[in-house]
Amino acid sequence: MAAESLDVVGIGNAIVDVIAQADDAFLARQGLAKGSMRLIDAAQAEALYAAMGPGIEMSGGSAANTIAGIASLGGTGAYIGKRSADELGEVFAHDIRSIGVRFATAPLQHGMPTARCLILVTPDAQRTMGTFLGASAELGPDDVAPELVRAAQVTYLEGYLFDPPRAKAAFLKAAELAHAAGRKVSLTLSDPFCVERHRADFRALVQGHIDILFANEAEIGALYETADFDVAVRAVRGHCDIAALTRSEKGSVVVTAGTTQTVAAEKVARLVDTTGAGDLYASGFLYGLTHGRDLASCARLGSLCAAEIISHFGARPEASLKALAAKAGLL
Questions:
Q1: What does the pLDDT look like over 162-190, one tens digit per residue?
Q2: What residue ranges do the domains of the chain occupy?
Q3: Which of the chain's ends, N or C, has fewer CB atoms near its CB within 10 Å?
Q4: What is the mean pLDDT of residues 115-137?
Q5: Model-level pTM greater than 0.85?
Q6: How far is it, in rounded angstroms, from Cα 41 to Cα 64?
Q7: CATH code for the domain defined by 3-327
Q8: Which residues contact 62 (CB under 8 A, 6 or more apart)?
Q9: What is the three-state SS of 65-116?
Q10: What is the pLDDT of residue 1?
């Protein structure tokens, strides 16, 4: 794949997911807040893994899932994320390269193992995550490949990666490189607890460096310290060029300086697992945006991609998103 033809480059945590079913009582015993993501250390990861039921292992990571979705739509993507030179690291690298995504970040040779996310899916399809960041937290400014950022129409940053200080420096470097090249920068807020940990820094990042913001209702409320969605919409307006705000079955709201557009959610025959819904919404939206679609069409593409991902376990597409979008008249 030629770097010159990139639609989106994603920067995030290179993670292998382990997905298992669980009930509310199990979450309570483990002290996990339903629907949230909690960072855990190596010992906690081992203990939670031992307590979980049978699991399905597959490559994940929020921004990596988004780039995988763009590839499934027929777009061109690259990914920057740190993994270890271990077995799970090789699995991650193989999986993302096999779908046509450019991935050349040098692996960590010594130290922490590859990150893993232990995902518990309750019968209502909500996902609760315990994440051991491992090697992914070692990503720093030197891992940001200038040629990829300059070549991509959009550089997409994963809010989950904002915890380690070196990752913040990597974000700023990527944003500065992108804007210097006349490119756009996008951020997903990822999780309300993540926002609460870094609210002031996220606000500064959004106002100073972000063109396209993705957030769900809880995340945008956390950013602006309000439970009123309309108040959050008014607060974000003008802080970035585009804010694409998802509201589950209520669809999504796209906010610009002068407009607010509401787009309905795509109907889903059977809700199985909400893991990756926001990631894949971003896939569709960014694919549309980098291919000249209007904002309402971008949001419809996002809704379609999210609907595919929540109809099965796992956060990578099982069906061709390009074929589904073509059938829906969106390509």
A1: 878 899 899 999 999 999 999 999 999 99
A2: 3-327
A3: N
A4: 93
A5: yes
A6: 22
A7: 3.40.1190.20
A8: 12, 13, 158, 159, 160, 188, 190, 278, 279
A9: HHHHHHHHCCCCEEEECCCECCHHHHHHHHHHHHCCCEECCCCECCCCCCEE
A10: 43
